[in-house]
Design a protein that fits this description.
The complex is a heterodimer of chains A (about 280) and B (about 325). Chain A is mainly alpha-helical. Chain A has helices at about 1-15, 20-35, 40, 75-110, 110-125, 130-140, 145-170, 175-180, 185-220, 235-245, 250-275. Chain A has a single domain (about 1-280), classed as MetI-like (MetI-like fold). In chain A, helix 4 (about 75-110) runs antiparallel to helix 9 and helix 10 (about 235-245) runs antiparallel to helix 11 (about 250-275). The model of chain A has no long low-confidence stretch (mean pLDDT about 85). Chain B folds into 2 domains: about 1-90 and about 170-310, P-loop containing nucleotide triphosphate hydrolases (Rossmann fold); about 100-170, no CATH class. Chain B is about 30% helix and about 25% strand. Chain B has 10 helices and 12 strands. Chain B has helices at about 45-55, 80-85, 110-115, 125-135, 140-145, 155-165, 185-200, 215-220, 235-240, 245-255; strands spanning about 1-15, 20-30, 35-40, 60-70, 75, 90-95, 175, 205-210, 220-225, 230-235, 305, 310. Chain B is globular, with a radius of gyration of 21 Å. Classes of the chains: A mainly alpha (about 280), B alpha/beta (about 325).
Chain lengths: ~280, ~325
């Protein structure tokens, strides 16, 4: 693990040196911070309905106004951030674990298994996300679980492919042969030599994928396929605002702004990470 | 007493264009406390030989016949698990490229600790073992070196670290696969002296593979000369370098730049090419390129022994 810490420390310094990376990491930290301390930052109850306060414009009492049921939008956004972050972190962790196992199997296992797994990845990848989401929601009903399953299915092939590629390149690396000739077992080689070498590219993919996950969650909730009301979700807020966008545009802004900021934050972070790990890919 | 004895080993690879006979009737022995050199051109089967001993032949490789006897055990028939327990403990290996032999993302200390994973000692004891070993290969400030990553060391230091790692478990046999080829001349000499010294301290045998004749002459007591998958000549270093019997060895020595007395514009080479091993070969393997070949050379020559000096040539008369 010390290698990971070392790499992370080094990367963090490099990220802060890039203006875009610094902006990205600030947005990400802001998002995580506000999601964790949502209760402290916004004192209002995000689910409390007060019919007298419907469609109030932004003011000191309601920093971002209220929605059609009189709920405080600022509180709803912060709590919506919790959902978005939880979905993003949980699904990424699950996809990473599944993707790593499948990727290692494909890369280090026998040839036929590699072919089978590749076919599987390509099949899953070839489904449009929305169609996959619709199909799953029809099966399981709209819920947070459906969102998570969709996101994991969409993400696993990407992680698995990256691990597979890394494993294939490392398979013939001399230090792997050396480890073999020193009596290391296959499990040992995978754990000690393969995994630490895949962390760099994985880190990039994770930070590039998180905005996609957040967008999928928001998108599904917007379409009514995801989180059920009254749980606050950015997508649901956006949908609430969408119906009344001409008269009360602040609701749509409240739903859209955090999606945009978080997505930008993670994307900037991811691109900076990619530039650091793989300078050849840098855009000119 | 022989640590390793290879008897009539035949290895072939299945390829799309037919079987490739990579090793044909290879026999030799590595005595205890002895450094045995293997010399030959690229593609003569040196690496196949090592991989066969280690049981790490590629998927398409197969041992057709013969035995690899190590401590009275035939390694060829040993199970995967048993073989794994011998690798790294009884037999260990140093590779050609010191840049590639160490994992770039793990600190040297971690790697040296990982390599002792079979021992039940505490982490601190393992660390002390690593420090002691690094001291033996003369790495300055070993405590500090353990915390550093491979890229922070020079090529020579990395190779010494690899050697330290290989000798960590005090093996009976060290296989050194061209360990000095990637190093410059001064480092090469230093590494060879180090190997010789460590071999005496630990009391292991070394199977030293190289295509550098000078290094072999310097380091090894016994020498095998390989050509196109066959051991064409074997004997003591003195016999091979001063009284070579096989025409190939003689030609090879003539081509050694270090032995040329006058300055030539063109380096001498052996005319012809290594035979294609895809087809079963009839007669002497060196027939096409030999300067003394005769009618009889179209039949397979047998090993002819003059005492412990053996050459696979019709022209050598056993005595």
């Amino acid at each position: 693990m010390s290698a990971v810490v070392y790499e992370m420390k080094k990367s963090l310094l490099k990220i802060m040196r890039e203006p875009l990376g610094a902006l990205g990491i600030s947005l990400v930290i802001l998002m995580i911070f506000s999601a964790i301390f949502a209760d402290l930052i916004a004192s209002a109850d995000p689910s409390k309905i007060s019919p007298r306060d419907r469609f109030l414009p932004p003011s000191f009492d309601h920093l971002m106004g209220t929605d059609q049921l009189g709920r405080d939008l600022f509180a709803r956004i912060l709590h919506g951030g919790r959902i978005a972050l939880a979905v993003a972190l949980f699904t990424t962790a699950v996809s990473l674990i599944i993707g790593t196992v499948l990727g290692l199997l494909a890369g280090y296992g026998p040839r036929w298994l590699d072919n089978v797994l590749l076919l599987l990845f390509d099949t899953v990848k070839s489904f449009p996300t929305v169609m996959l989401a619709l199909a799953l929601v029809t099966l399981f009903g709209p819920s947070l679980t459906s969102v998570i399953i969709v996101v994991v299915l969409v993400n696993v092939p990407g992680y698995a492919r990256i691990i597979r590629t890394q494993t294939l390149t490392l398979k013939s690396a001399e230090f792997v042969t050396a480890a073999q000739s020193m009596g290391a077992s296959t499990m040992r080689i995978l754990r000690v030599h393969m995994l630490p070498n895949t962390i760099g590219p994985l880190l990039i993919l994770v930070s590039m994928d998180i905005p996609v996950v957040i967008a999928i969650e928001a998108g599904m909730s917007f379409l009514g396929l995801g989180v059920r009301p009254p749980t606050p979700s950015w997508g649901a807020i956006l949908n609430d605002g969408f119906t009344a966008i001409r008269d009360t545009p602040w609701i749509a802004v409240a739903g859209g702004l955090p999606i945009i900021l978080t997505t930008l934050g993670f994307t900037f972070l991811g691109e900076t990470l990619r530039d650091i790990f793989d300078p050849r890919m840098k855009r000119r | 007493m022989n640590i390793l004895e290879i008897k009539n080993l035949n290895v072939s690879f299945q390829t799309e264009t037919g079987d490739l006979h990579a090793l044909r009737d290879v026999s030799f022995a590595v005595p205890k406390n002895c450094i045995v050199g293997v010399v030959g051109e690229s593609g003569c089967g040196k690496s196949t030989l090592i991989n066969t001993i280690l049981g790490l032949l590629a998927q398409n490789g197969r041992v057709d016949s013969g035995e690899v006897v190590f401590h009275d055990q035939n390694l060829i028939t040993l199970s995967h698990q048993d073989m794994q327990n011998i690798r790294g403990v009884k037999i260990s290996t140093v590779f050609q490229d010191p840049m590639g032999a160490l994992n770039p993302v793990i600190s040297v200390g971690k790697q040296m600790e990982h390599i002792q994973y079979r021992s039940k000692e505490s982490r601190e004891e393992k660390r002390q073992n690593a420090i002691a070993m690094l001291k033996q290969v003369r790495i300055p400030d070993p405590e500090n070196a353990l915390m550093r990553h491979p890229h922070e060391f020079s090529g020579g230091m990395k190779q010494r670290i690899s050697i330290a790692m290989a000798l960590m478990m005090k093996p009976d046999l060290l296989i050194a696969d061209e360990p000095t080829t990637a190093l410059d001349a001064t480092l090469e000499i230093a590494t060879i002296e180090l190997l010789k010294e460590l071999q005496e301290q630990i009391g292991c045998s070394i199977l030293f593979i190289s295509h550098h004749l000078g290094v072999i002459a310097e380091l090894c007591e016994k020498v095998l000369v390989m050509y196109a998958g066959e051991v064409v000549e074997r004997g003591t270093a003195k016999q091979i370098f001063h009284n070579s019997l096989h025409p190939y060895t003689q030609k090879l020595l003539e081509c050694d730049p270090a032995r040329l007395s006058d300055h030539n514009q063109v380096l001498p080479t052996i005319p012809g090419e290594i035979p294609d091993l895809h087809h079963p070969h009839r007669g002497c393997i060196f027939f096409d390129r030999c300067h003394v070949s005769a009618e009889i050379c179209q039949t397979q020559p047998q090993d002819a022994a003059q005492g412990d000096h053996i050459a696979r040539c019709h022209m050598v008369k056993p005595c």
